[in-house]
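Um, can you check?
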Amino acid sequence: MNQIIKLGFTGELVESLQETFGFKKTGTFDQDLYKAIKLFQKKHDLKQDGVVGYLTWKYLNLNPDEIYADTDASTSATWITQYNLPSGEFVDEETHKDFIILHSNHGTLDPHKQIDLWANDQRGRVGSHYVIGGPNSEKDGLILQAIKDHNWGYHLGPIKNTRLQKNSISIELCSFGPLEYKDNKYFNWYGLEVDKNQVGILEHKWNGYKYFHKYSEAQIESLKALLLLIKNRHGVNLNAGLYSFIKNKNLNPFEYNTTALAINNGVLSHSNIDLKKLDLFPQLELLEMLRSI
């Protein structure tokens, strides 16, 4: 369900807006509603474009998920569990979202433990908005929300384009990441053996590594659902950035790409914008999912 509402749109969400502003409920986003929205945005120091997006809904004290939801779990995103970072462990600043940045933690497969680590370390307000539990665990594919969409956390390290830091939704896939091959076995960076059935093998080494911990089917399905939800909530273009890199079959779509720093809206991996990073790696099933959306 698209939650970005603008001039010319029709439907129940438009009727909710018309009721809020005291207009007759016609279900069509007309010029009168457009002007009222712009005045409201000006009053609350929001972007004055007449488009009702995530922050405008928030300041109106309206939530499209609530408007469409009932007690039936199938009518809303009940598959996301709230496990929020405590106050002071994220940046309590409201920002419009133009990007989705994909990460892999290269550590614990337990999303609760990953968020607890951010909450209790000494690095400050570091963390991702969403964390997806890792393979071969009870929490495989489980989505936890650590930071509310309108706030943000530091998740990219030093970066010239600070919009990618502040104006993005960050998603963390729990995975062991790059692996070492020794004595016919595979090990993660701290020496834990990884089942060979969970190992992805690249044709050529990437940043010195050929073997990676595979993302599970459940993780990839959860990521797909989350990407579509964020698109509907924030209007992020899923066909810009990473998708365009995937279409170019002459390169690894997750490699560092100088054009990534210049896009205005879209999906990127951490490795697209940092030469030293390896998240994510080009697993076939992941690429197929990203192509499909």
